[in-house]
Amino acid sequence: MSNKKTTKEIGIMENYCSPKRIWKEKNLEYLKQMQKFLDTADNISDENLKHRVIIEMLKCDEILTRISEDLINKKMEIGNNIFSKYDMEKII
Q: What is the pTM of this model?
């Protein structure tokens, strides 16, 4: 089987690495857990399986990120002071 990425997989990776996701990518706990996952996945000897596992995890991560962003945006729309600068720093 080819290691060539499909257009859908490339789109997932581009969204995952998007600069608009800086709130997530600066979170040290998130980064630590992502690194643990990737280190564990790196031990999968079957390259095709490793690739599929990583892609599926990134799909889940993308869904959870969209849910989080929607919640953040809704809270920001409800009131100007619901999310203070302090709250945003805790998220980051």
A: 0.61
Could you please report the per-residue DSSP string of the chain? Answer: ---PPPHHHHHHHHHHT-GGGHHHHT-HHHHHHHHHHHHHHTT-S-HHHHHHHHHHHHHHHHHHHHHHHHHHHHHHHH-TTTS-HHHHHHH-
Supply 13's token pair.
């990776």
Q: What percent of the chain has pLDDT over 70?
A: 60
Domain boundaries, the chain: 21-91
pLDDT number for residue 1: 45
Angle separating helix axes 7-16 and 47-78, nearest 10 degrees: 50
pLDDT tens for each residue of 25-47: 788 999 999 999 999 999 999 99
47 contacts 55 by C-beta, under 8 angstroms: no
Q: Label residue 17 left, alpha or beta by phi (over 0 means left) and psi (-120 to 50 means alpha).
A: alpha
